[in-house]
Amino acid sequence: NLGVALIGRDPDRAAPLFQAALKEKPNYILAHINLGLVRIAQDRPEDGRRLLKRAVALEPGRAQSHHWEAVGLSRIGDSSAALVAAERSVRLDPENAAYRMLAGQLAQKEGDFPRSAQHLSVVARRAPLASALGFSYGFALQKSGKNEAAVAEYRRFLKREPDHVQVRFNVGFALMTLGRCAEARAEFRRVLELRPSYAEAQRWLDHCR
To answer: Could you tell me what percent of the chain has a pLDDT over 70?
Structure first.
């Protein structure tokens, strides 16, 4: 537990604690996971990858291990392999909102927006107030051509964060795509009030008549 507390602040102090745990209990899955994440933080990605893979191999049916392997692979920058691992965790625990959120975000990184929307729709049902959901899910819907649904999702998000500039812009763009220019122009004007330098908002405000 001390090692977990130190991971974010001092990975070099955390590493020996996990190593000691593994010396005492070589098949301790959480120690493999956490030491793997520490090695990634220490810029030792292949060691981290190996430890995370070992955690998965110890109990392949454990969704948590696949999830953390996905987190580690994402931190390394291997979003393709991370998505594969994330979707394994989802198959094992399909109603887990955190696992679905990661899979949805990784699918967006890979440019697969319908796949992202499929995962994030579960998060919308299970954890509708998740802070990152409104933006990620709305964007996935928008990029999948589902602009009406995207506007609805963005507006739910804006009830909690009314001054989120990018979401305001995205709402305006989706409304413009739907031919609802009066509403779109109101959103673009609000974006420019919040951030006068946002050139794209001015561009589309001038374009949408």
So the answer is: 91
